[in-house]
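Q: Two folds, back to back.
A: First:
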Amino acid sequence: MFAKPSALSLSLAAMLFAGCTSAVPAPPAPFSDLDALPPLRTTLACLPDEAALVAAHRATSDGYEEAENSLSSLERLIGHGIMMVEVDIASIADGTPILFHDGVWEEHASGTGPVVATAPADFARLRLKDAQGRVGGEAVPTLADLLQAAQGRIYLELDLKTSADVDRVVALVRERGMVDQVLLIASTDEEAERFHRDYGDEFLLSLPRSFRPGPGAPRQALWIGESWENGAERRLPPRHYVIGAQWQKNADALPRAARALDILVTRQAQRYPAVAGLKKGAAFRACLREG
């Protein structure tokens, strides 16, 4: 008969198993032949002219039951192979960065009143409302929760709301070693000036189209809004990437949008491939492998 394993041996086996399961996750399906998720700048630099990364607006897609800006919706998008999500970052009373779009809780969570005035103990009791407005069991995620779930798996566009403590957000991203996986969104020229000055050498930024960094500035992204025309946006200064929104449910418009944009922000991410308009997939992946 085999000897019964000792408590010590079982404990060591459990520790070894835990160590294996904590390994860096493999990149999502579109890049499954790569060892790791490439830096966002590398992926954008390797994009063919006819292709665009698809980013899921508020980390969800039309038809999802899961709440917007939720970890359950994020997991579903990753499972579909989506490469990027746009999420909204606010703060509660103690400055903790969280995922939430609105300034008050009523429409999308179980709480009431201003998000920024919410004490940590009250925040911990809140639960998200799903796409049908029903309160479920899922907590409102913090930015730390998001970073843990997304690390090495999906790119993030962080839309920083007025309550967000930008320095604290940046510190959390740095602590996680995820600077090359994140794009920071500046909504106004004033924000763009500060982000460009304080973070422009380190982070990829999304800047208002009206903002023009000086000569020699790192290549950034320009937000052109919810429309484009015949791919003319590709004629923007070559040191800029181009971000726009595709709200139409007409999939026939996708090829033209992909030619015009580098990042396509949409509420229909589930309908589209992770890299829209990609015709030279082998060359794209070869470029990513070369880094």
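A: Second:
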Amino acid sequence: MSALKTNKSRVSLLKIPSGEDMIVGRMFIAEGENLKATVLLLHGFPGTMMNLDIATELQMLGWNVLVINYRGSWGSEGNYSFANALEDVQTTLNYIQDEAISIANRIDVNRIALVGHSFGGFLALKTASLNPSIKIAAYLSGANFPLFLKIMEEDPASEKRILNMLDESSYFLKGATGESLMNEIKEHEKEWNTFLFAPTLTNKKLLITAVTEDEELPKEQFHDPFIPILDQAQISYETVVFDTDHNYTNKRKELTATLQEWLLRNL
């Protein structure tokens, strides 16, 4: 019996080739024989919150959800870098759009959404800006790491805190250090700044969320200045602000409900 005719919901492990390595994918396949709209759910840096609860809930609501771990993180082969993570997302899209893979996993290749939290939000928007096949993307308390350079310039005392954060997170990742990641940010300062590449997101539909108590990526610095930039560029977006922390700790169900309603309207 083919995977397409096996109509029960299930979770499968995928080995996704990226560069010379294999990355880990968890494929949450929704019930039913027909091909499904599919969410590529992208976790943050370094991956404290994997959002598997959201993946499970969306699966039960009828969506396929694929959660990946970027190279050098959480069981995936290779070395971690921000550039590698960006490549991993595009490689994953190519992988699931392959006919054999899409049929085996009941994926409708014409209905794929990118949903990312924190650093994953950056990955979602940047990939959408580069990939014409992606029409909708969600930026959940999204990161804009080049803003750290501005913050450090305006407040030199913040440099030690930011580098320490990068170092502490790198402990859980292979082949990365705080210094190597900061060098990447400096090298790609303009092309990775969401404020600068926002105008390339025309013809996309975006969901932008933020939280009131964000100690990692304060709303006042990372979210509030972004909204007028989107307005000026005439980007189609919806925005929701939650009264919680960066990981939406006590608003998980509300966040999932917001995603469900937005996906129903747009995918």
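Q: And?
A: The chain has a mean pLDDT of 96.
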